[in-house]
Amino acid sequence: MAQRITAQQAAEMVTSGMWLDYGASLGQPDVFDIALAARKDELRSVKIRSCLTVRPRAVLEADPLGEHFHWVNLHFSGYDRRKHDAGIVNYLPVNLGEIPDYYRRFIEPVDIVVIKTCPMDENGFFNYSAATLWHQAVIDRARVVIVEESSGLPYVLGGQTGVHVSQVHYIIEGNANPAAELPNPPPSDVDRAVAHLIAGEIQDGDCLQIGIGGMPNAVCSLLSESSVRDLGVHTEMLTDGIMDLYRAGLITGARKQLDVGKIVTTFALGSRYLYEGINRNPDFHFHPVDYTNLPQNIMQNDNMVSINNTTQMDLQGQAASESDGFRHISGTGGQLQFVRGAYASKGGKSFICLASTYEKNGVRRSRIVPSLTTGNIVTTPRSDIMYVATEYGLTNLKGKSVAERAKALIAIAHPDFREELEREAYANGQIPKGFF
């Protein structure tokens, strides 16, 4: 039977060399984290697996040299990125939808898992709130399961949205702080230009997956002003932009084949407006990430539309969306799985969007390049890329040869870089002489 203990008592269970799991996003514990950090000098080589950190973590702040705690992360937030730059965070490469299977098949059972949840409900469940993800898979094999109750989290509905008290060993009282919010900056002119091209491709009854970032959210803003109707949603991440479409009455899910009438997701991250909208709302169904992200599930909805960002693309169509050379900045996430799931969907489309340029050290550079920056990681291979959009146009790479792809991508690059890109493409043999 689950026992109620203090955060300090829970932290006392940790010994040097243990593997801990903090879960992901809104599910990361707070009071346990503070209590564990207080024991820093007593511990060595405590390894903590987590993902998408939304608040500073006490164990990392207390151990800036990484002498006591080792943080292994499955997808970086801005905070995780900074700690990676400091040398105390390491990335674990994953397709997000496969993570439950990793815990079942490849990762040894963790010594202690600590997940922040809603307080126990009337049926004996601790709701995972807006972070269903892979938490149940971790808990199913963990040696010790601890939940940190927090009344500040929204309560969500769906499938496998909580752990039953019969699976819990210890309960600790958390704080009542509101769920962490993700700032949602207004879209730039470039975001709006790209979004306008993509929004023009979306039709009544399409089923949407919206990735993180300004451009995908700008698509939502434009759609909310359009005449499109009966949209569906089957996505990994729920955003403020999707909530805007829902509030506007544009999302009904009536034409979906899977989960008709429901907005399906595995986690939400945004503003209080978003959290209030999902709280006990039966229109929103949260599921484990291997339900939302596996291509064989995604493809079951016709006219699936996947919209995601990248940071660099070469002239063959390889999308590098998670690193800047050897510097890791985010993660593979669900991008590749949704690109493949949307393509396999009847009438489906996938869009990879990017601004044509960026500025680094005061120098403007092209995001479309002859070859990827040394060390850059390919997130989506050239063979999977369908539509690519910049503020200068939209092109479909499916069915195009290497030379045709190079020509098509040069045409949507910034005009200031097109001549140089074409010259290098010919010099590298990407466009054979006399081919066109």
UniProtKB/TrEMBL annotation:
GO terms for biological process: acetate metabolic process. PANTHER family: ACETYL-COA HYDROLASE (PTHR21432:SF20), ACETYL-COA HYDROLASE-RELATED (PTHR21432). Residues 270-425 form the Acetyl-CoA hydrolase/transferase C-terminal domain. This is 4-hydroxybutyrate CoA-transferase. Belongs to the acetyl-CoA hydrolase/transferase family. Residues 4-180 form the Acetyl-CoA hydrolase/transferase N-terminal domain. Transmembrane segments: none annotated. InterPro entries: AcetylCoA_hyd_C, AcetylCoA_hyd_C_sf, ActCoA_hydro, ActCoA_hydro_N, NagB/RpiA_transferase-like. GO terms for molecular function: acetate CoA-transferase activity. It comes from Rhodoferax lacus. The keyword Lipoprotein does not apply.
